[in-house]
Design a protein that fits this description.
Layout lengths: L11 H8 L3 E4 L1 H13 L3 E6 L4 H11 L2 H5 L10 H7 L7 E6 L1 H7 L1 H20 L4 E6 L28
Parallel strand pairs: 1-4, 2-3, 3-4
Helix pairs in contact: 6-7
Amino acid sequence: MTAFARLNWDEPDVCAIVVGRGIATVEPAFEATCEAWLSRRGYRLHVFDFARGISGVVSQIAQFFHWKEQFGYELDPASRNLDALRDGFQIEEPGLVLKLLHFDEALSADASWCRGFLSIISEQSLRRLALGERFFALLPVADSAALPGLCFERSCIPFPIRFRERAT
């Protein structure tokens, strides 16, 4: 099963997933057009709004991912624990797009957390792609925004894979 029947580099989802490693940006003038395109193709948009700070989004994340049901405790809204967030950030729904509003404000408040959050989204996008599904985040940006070009993770040559055959 493949996520894309063909790679059309003009389509937002291909650019987001293949080129942007799970992250896409859109300028205000094209935001409505992009959302309409996503809707016509069966994507479901879920909004996380950083206008009230990162803690507000952590609360939204806890609700969205049913944190208490997964782990048996409430996620602290002031938590900046990216390892805990990574553990609970399980995308199960194909065709989900997270729209991150006012992300530039969060970046100003805690750039390290924001880079980690983008890394988690990128990891999940790659995992969903490997399963033949599509997932990415969409960040609306102003024309003069500092977000495009921001580095959020590094890639390295991995350690060798250790194969162990199972006795069957």
